[in-house]
Design goal:
Gyrase A, domain 2, RNA-binding, 5-stranded parallel β-sheet, 4-stranded antiparallel β-sheet, alpha/beta, flat, Rossmann fold
Length: about 575
RNA sequence: GCGCCCGUAGCUCAGUUGGAUAGAGCACGAGCCUUCUAAGCUUGGGGCCGCAGGUUCGAAUCCUGCCGGGCGCGCCA
C-alpha cells in the first residue's frame, strides 16, 4: 500500500508540530486533547487556502485567550516555506495562504501517485465486515435491493482505499418460513414439469415463472417420486435445491452490477451448527435471556393476542423499547434469535461491523445493536457496529411512477434496469443522494445527455480530458510537468479543488458515506467545465494553444490529473470512466 | 400509542460529522453564442435552514418539546 502524503494531511501534521513547539517552549500546557482540531479549506476562499480552529478549541482547556494562543501558532506556522500568509481572523481562526509552489507540488503528487492518489492508511489495517444485499433467496433481485447493494459495495471500496481490510458478506436467509413457501412453490413447478396442469398459482405461493427451471431440473433428476409424497419427504430437499438456484440467480444479478461478495453465510448452516443455541446458553448464564411474556402491542389491540411465555433477550437493558423473543412458541428460532448469533460470529473475525439494511427494517435496528453490545461488550469495549439504512427508490418513467405488482408479474427486476440503462448509470445514480433520503429513479432522466444529469456531467468531464489529449497528440503535443509555473490563477483554482480529494475520501470513509465521492466528482466536473468554457470566448485560455507548446504542456498536465482524479473517484463508486461519448 | 428517518431557495437536493456572510442544478429575469472547445455560456434576484426553547466563544448541524410528511411496530423476514 502506498501511503500518500498529501498536502492536507501534511498540514494537519504541521499544525500538530507547531503545537508541540509551543508546548516545548512552555507557551501551552501539555497533554491537551487535540481531537477537535480541524485543518481544512474555509468555505469563503477569501479567507485563504487553509484554516484551523486550533486556537479556539484549545483556548478554554489551556486557560488562555484564543488570540494569544493563535499568535503563538501563527508565529510557528509562518516559518513553513509553503506558507505565504498566516493571520488571525474572526473569533480565533488561523487563516493560511499557501505558495503557488505548494499547490504545484501537489499537482505533481497526483501525477506521481496516480491511481493511488487519495489512498490512505487512516483505517490502520483494521478489518471491517460489511454485510449488504442479503436479499431473501426467493427470487431475482428487484430494484428494492439495488440501492443497498450499490451503497454497500461502494462503501466497501471506499474503506479499502482508506486502509481497512474489508470483508463483503451476504447473509442468506434460508431457514425461515418463506423458504418453505419457496419449496412448496417449486414443488408445484416440479409437478408442472411432469405434465400436470397446475392452473393458477394459489395465493400465498410464489407465482414467478423463474421457478419453472428449478421444477424442471428436479423433475428430470427425481422423476415422479415426490409427486404424491408427503411434504416431509421432499421439503428439505426442495428447499435446498431451490435456494441454491435462487442464489445462483442472485449472484448473477449482482454480477451485472459488478458486485462480488467474499462470504455467503447461510442461516440454516448457522442453526445446524448450533450457534443460536450457544448464544442462548451464554446469554442465559448472564441473565440476558429469560423466559417471559411479551406485552400486547400498544395502540392497536388485536383480538387474537394470546400471551405466551418465550425466551426473551433483555434488549431493554441496552436501549431497546421491549425485550425480544429469540425463539417462537414452536421452539424454532426467530429471525432475531439466529441473527444475534450470526452477528456474534461476524464479530469474531472483524474489528468493526457495518450492516446495510432497507429502511423497512428500521424497527429492528435497536434490538440487533443491543445484541451486539451485549455479546461483544461482556469483557471490555463492545465492537463498533453501525446499521446504515437506505431508503426506498421510486421508479419513474417520464415522471410517472412505474406501477408494479408481483402477482400481475409486472415487477421490474434489477436485471431489467441494468439492461436498459447500464451498470454505470445505475451505480452512479444510486449514489447521487444520501442514503437516508428517499429517491426517484427516472429512466429518462438518468440517461439524459445534459448537465442536469450528474452521471453524464461527470463522465463528460473525463471524456473531454481524453479527447483533448487525443487531439493534442495529433498536433504533436502532450502533457508535461516541466513548466507548471506557467499555470495561472484559474488553473490553480482547479488544482486546489483537486487537492481536496484525499480529505473528501477520508471524511467519507469515516462517515461511511460513499455518496460524498459522487458529489465531489460533480463539483470537480463543474469546475473543469467552467474552466473549459473560458476557452469559448478566449482562445488563449484553451488547453491546446498550438503556438505555445510549454503552456499547452502544463495545461495538458493539469487536465491529465483531473482525468486521473475522476477515474479514482469513479473507481470507488464502481463506475468505469469513458474515453468518449 | 411507541420507535426510526426526513423537513434547507418556487422544485430536486448538497452542506466537509459544531465554524466565519448557508451552496449547486432546475425554473424565473437579463445579456451572449449561431459555434465543432458539440451535447450552450455569462450574469442577477430569490432563505425565519419546519416552530420554540436549551447547550457554548459559535448551531442548518448537538439536546428537549411541539408541528408536518414518510416508514415500521406483535413469535414475519
Amino acid at each position: 500500500m502506498s501511503e500518500t502524503n498529501t498536502l492536507h494531511a501534511a498540514f494537519a501534521g504541521h499544525v500538530s508540530s507547531a503545537l508541540d513547539a509551543l508546548e516545548a517552549a512552555g507557551a501551552l500546557p501539555a497533554g491537551l486533547n487535540r481531537a477537535a482540531i480541524t485543518v481544512e479549506p474555509p468555505r469563503d476562499p477569501s479567507h485563504g487556502d487553509l484554516a484551523t480552529n486550533a486556537a479556539m478549541v484549545l483556548a478554554k482547556p489551556a486557560g488562555m485567550k484564543p488570540r494569544d494562543l493563535a499568535e503563538g501558532l501563527v508565529a510557528e506556522l509562518a516559518k513553513l516555506p509553503q506558507v505565504t500568509g498566516a493571520e488571525i481572523a474572526g473569533p480565533g481562526f488561523i487563516n493560511l495562504r499557501l505558495s503557488r509552489e505548494a499547490w504545484l507540488a501537489e499537482l505533481r503528487g497526483i501525477a506521481t501517485t496516480g491511481a493511488d492518489y487519495g489512498r490512505s492508511a487512516v483505517g490502520g489495517g483494521t478489518t471491517v465486515n460489511i454485510e449488504y444485499v442479503s436479499a431473501n433467496p426467493t427470487g431475482p433481485m428487484h430494484m428494492g435491493h439495488c440501492r443497498g447493494a450499490v451503497v454497500g459495495d461502494a462503501l466497501a471500496a471506499l474503506l479499502e482505499f482508506s486502509g481497512h481490510k474489508v470483508v463483503r458478506e451476504y447473509y442468506v436467509n434460508d431457514a425461515g418460513g418463506q423458504v418453505d413457501v419457496l419449496a412448496r412453490s417449486v414443488h408445484l413447478r416440479y409437478r408442472e414439469a411432469l405434465g400436470e396442469d397446475i392452473g393458477e398459482i394459489p395465493e400465498g405461493l410464489y407465482p414467478g415463472a423463474y421457478l419453472a427451471p428449478t421444477g424442471h431440473r428436479l423433475a428430470t433428476h427425481y422423476g415422479s417420486k415426490f409427486v404424491d409424497a408427503p411434504e416431509s419427504d421432499w421439503l428439505v430437499l426442495f428447499r435446498k435445491e431451490a435456494v441454491a438456484d435462487m442464489m445462483a440467480m442472485i449472484r448473477e444479478d449482482l454480477g451485472l452490477l459488478g458486485i462480488h461478495h467474499d462470504i455467503f453465510s447461510s442461516e440454516a448452516e448457522l442453526q445446524a451448527a448450533g450457534k443460536p443455541a450457544e448464544a442462548e446458553a451464554w446469554l442465559r448464564e448472564r441473565d440476558l435471556v429469560y423466559d417471559g411474556m411479551l406485552e400486547a402491542p400498544k395502540g392497536k389491540t388485536p383480538e387474537d393476542w394470546e400471551p405466551v411465555e418465550l425466551p426473551l433477550f433483555r434488549s431493554t437493558k441496552f436501549g431497546d423499547d421491549q425485550d425480544r423473543p429469540i425463539k417462537k412458541s414452536d421452539g424454532s428460532w426467530t429471525y432475531f434469535g439466529a441473527d444475534l448469533a450470526y452477528h456474534y460470529q461476524k464479530a469474531q473475525s472483524a474489528d468493526a461491523l457495518v450492516d446495510i439494511w432497507g429502511a423497512d427494517h428500521a424497527g429492528t435496528v435497536k434490538r440487533i445493536k443491543a445484541a451486539v453490545a451485549a455479546m461483544t461488550g461482556a469483557e471490555g469495549e463492545a465492537i463498533p457496529f453501525e446499521v446504515k439504512l437506505v431508503q426506498m427508490v421510486q421508479l419513474l418513467r417520464d415522471g410517472e411512477p412505474v406501477k408494479m405488482s408481483k402477482r400481475a408479474g409486472t415487477f421490474i427486476t434489477l436485471a431489467d434496469v441494468v439492461r436498459e440503462v447500464g451498470k454505470d448509470v445505475v451505480r452512479f445514480t444510486m449514489l447521487t443522494r444520501k442514503p437516508e433520503a428517499q429517491m426517484d429513479f427516472d429512466f429518462a432522466k438518468v440517461v439524459e445527455a445534459s448537465k442536469d444529469n450528474p452521471v453524464f456531467y461527470v463522465q463528460y468531464c473525463h471524456a473531454r480530458v481524453s479527447s483533448t489529449l487525443r487531439k493534442a497528440a495529433a498536433e504533436g503535443l502532450g502533457p508535461s510537468g516541466a513548466d507548471l509555473e506557467l499555470l495561472e490563477e484559474e488553473e490553480l483554482e482547479l488544482v486546489k479543488l483537486a487537492a481536496q480529494f484525499p480529505r473528501i475520501v477520508e471524511a467519507a470513509a469515516a462517515a461511511r458515506e460513499p455518496h460524498r465521492i459522487a458529489f465531489f466528482l460533480h463539483d470537480l466536473a463543474a469546475a473543469f467545465h467552467a474552466y473549459w468554457n473560458l476557452g469559448n470566448d478566449r482562445p488563449e485560455k484553451r488547453f491546446i494553444v498550438v503556438q505555445n507548446g510549454k503552456l499547452t504542456g502544463a495545461r495538458l498536465f493539469l487536465a491529465t490529473q483531473i482525468g486521473q482524479l475522476v477515474r479514482n473517484g469513479l473507481a470507488l463508486l464502481g463506475v468505469e470512466a469513458v474515453e468518449e461519448m
